[in-house]
Amino acid sequence: MTRHPPMVPVEFEDEFVRGLTEIFEQKIVFNQVLGLKITSLQPEAVTGLIAMKPDLVGHYAFNRLHGGVISAGLDAMGGLAVMAAIGARHMDEAPAQRLQRFAKLGTIDLRIDYLRPGIGEYFDLHAEVLRLGSRVASTRMEFRGVDGKLLSTGAGAYIIS
Amino acid sequence: MTRHPPMVPVEFEDEFVRGLTEIFEQKIVFNQVLGLKITSLQPEAVTGLIAMKPDLVGHYAFNRLHGGVISAGLDAMGGLAVMAAIGARHMDEAPAQRLQRFAKLGTIDLRIDYLRPGIGEYFDLHAEVLRLGSRVASTRMEFRGVDGKLLSTGAGAYIIS
Amino acid sequence: MTRHPPMVPVEFEDEFVRGLTEIFEQKIVFNQVLGLKITSLQPEAVTGLIAMKPDLVGHYAFNRLHGGVISAGLDAMGGLAVMAAIGARHMDEAPAQRLQRFAKLGTIDLRIDYLRPGIGEYFDLHAEVLRLGSRVASTRMEFRGVDGKLLSTGAGAYIIS
Amino acid sequence: MTRHPPMVPVEFEDEFVRGLTEIFEQKIVFNQVLGLKITSLQPEAVTGLIAMKPDLVGHYAFNRLHGGVISAGLDAMGGLAVMAAIGARHMDEAPAQRLQRFAKLGTIDLRIDYLRPGIGEYFDLHAEVLRLGSRVASTRMEFRGVDGKLLSTGAGAYIIS
Predict the structure, then answer these.
(1) What is the phi-psi region of residue D80: left when phi exceeds 0, alpha when psi lies from -120 to 50, beta otherwise?
(2) CB atoms closer than 10 angstroms to residue D33
(3) Which chains have 3+ CB pairs within 8 A of C?
(4) B36 contacts in A (CB within 8 Å)?
(5) d(CA C130, CA B70)
(6) From CA C18, how far away is CA C13, in angstroms rounded?
């Protein structure tokens, strides 16, 4: 995807961005539980944010983020990156039609590397598509502290259709 | 671990089981959010359960479990299996002392394979330790529907100390 | 795959077994370099064998198998398991036709856990398909010493078509 | 590692570079089979090269590199990156002493994502250490064609001591 950018840069319509944001932040209820918000949505990469809160604690002694919040957040962001890439590939379709493609997306598998403890008030999530095929997409994700420190990395494969 | 069982089978004391259960189900707050409960705790393997609830939905159209619930649950269960194996290795220590070892446990990395959609009222989680070294433990996990169908598998590496 | 066995057990024809063995052991040249041999070929699972030889050494001090031999062998075996499962699904096709499906198989991703050093004269490899979809197959692999000790485990996703 | 560079840049001695190159390219026999050569060796990152040859073919029809060559090469490069990072951390030791640390390095686990077929005359391998702890190191690897196209990515965890 990132290797073969379209000649004309893709600009998502407000309707598409609003629709995708609503699905991602509201309708996927567990993303609400995580407090996962989209901060940017581009065809090549997407970014998001999670604010620390008591529900997300994994280590009682250190007020540390649960590893599952990181894996869940990075899985969700990888899927969102795939959705953005698919959206950019089908700009000939109406926004509502493109959004329906999200329902068909599924994670095949996921790997998370936990590098450093998730301690902080906010966390930045980043995902990019390394390859968008006709049936499978591969993504790479990063989970960073507010100071930009790399806390975790991820890799995922997604089925599209 | 499973390859070199102790001559005398290890039986955990009630104090250890109660303490570990309280840490796992209560103090690790995000496990509470998941509704993750321990159903058995043996030195060789541990099992747990998650009940479906609206908070855990990942796919609005199909009332399907969010993949992040699966990765978070399997990560937690892998860690619990390591903790049980460590507990069995240090039966000479008092239960309270062994429980403190949990605070030092950390996930190095995790892989989840999503085989089938997580649809159902309850889900069974299983984890076993494939190797317990002095510094690193490797685990294998399974996520099943109530009918026993294999929905997801996992593999994790944990640092111990 | 293993969950929904066919009513009538599938028995592969000699032509299919010979053809698949020739492709796997001879035409895939790097499998020859590994000395990777098929020891059984069933629709549900496949097994293979690698004999230790100087070319495969990874650790000069301990005559230990190179981790890459393990990852390469398990990747190949996972693909073979998928090929056997596909072969069993298409018994209505002539053996030669089914064998052509091998050319379309590709690994999406692979995870290997190295549990114990690969020391020994022979190693047994095992692979099974956890799920055979229409586009993606997921497999689980094991690498064992002659005494049956589990040395490494693997998980792979494969694209089929 | 890459986040906290030493104040004074580390410059490896010729003796260390020659010694590490000899171990990596010659004594690790399977690296010889792969034809894996070091092209640069820095404390922050290492690069290498594999030339296509008949032994490495995985797909008879397309003269395509065997996936196992990629996984084996990236595993080896990840280990080399860790070794370089360890070498830089212990510049107070004599080169020969630092080289002995290589014997204690082991891969805990590995993930490879195969993005595009490995077709070409040469391949470039790259590895960097994302975190160098006291017991575990995490790395990220890339496998590229001569034109720079990203063909595969990898992630590994290594035990050090």
Answers:
(1) alpha
(2) 22
(3) A, B, D
(4) none
(5) 17
(6) 9
Which pLDDT belongs to residue D7? 55
Residue D59 in tokens: 């797909």
Query: How many helices (H) and strands (E) would you count in chain B?
Result: 4, 8
**Backbone φ, ψ for residue D103 (5° rounding):** -65, -20
- HSE of A138 in the Cβ direction (CA atoms, 13 Å)? 22
The alpha helices in C6-157, defined as continuous H runs, are 14-22, 29-34, 67-89, 95-100
CB < 8 Å to C109, chain A: 109, 138, 155, 157
pLDDT one-digit tens code per residue, B41-98: 999 899 999 999 999 999 777 789 999 999 999 999 999 999 999 999 999 999 999 9
Among all residues of chain B, which has the CA nearest to that of C115?
B131
β-sheet bridge partners, residue D65: D57
In this structure, are residues A123 and A67 in contact, taking their beta carbons and an 8 Å threshold?
A: no
Question: DSSP assignment, residue A115?
Answer: -
CA neighbours closer than 13 Å in the CB half-sphere of residue C114: 25
Q: How far is CA C159 from CA A106, B114, C135, in A?
A: 15, 15, 6
Nearest to D111 by CA among A156, C37, C43, A114: A156
**Predicted TM-score of the model (pTM):** 0.94
**Rounded CA gap, D42 and D85, in Å?**
8
DSSP-assigned letters across all residues of C112-138: EEE-S---SSEEEEEEEEEEE-SSEEE
Instruction: Kindly state the tokens that stand for C14.
Output: 């000699």
Contacts of D106 (CB under 8 A, 6+ apart): C114, C117, D158, D159
Single-letter amino acid, residue C136: V
Query: Among all chains, which residue has been given the structure tokens 């995985």?
Result: D58
Check if the interface score ipTM surpasses 0.90. yes
Taking the C-alpha atoms of residue B68 and residue A70, their distance in angstroms, rounded to an integer, is 9
CA D12 to chain C, closest CA, distance in angstroms equals: 23
B79 Cβ contact list (under 8 Å, min separation 6): B105, B107, B156, B158
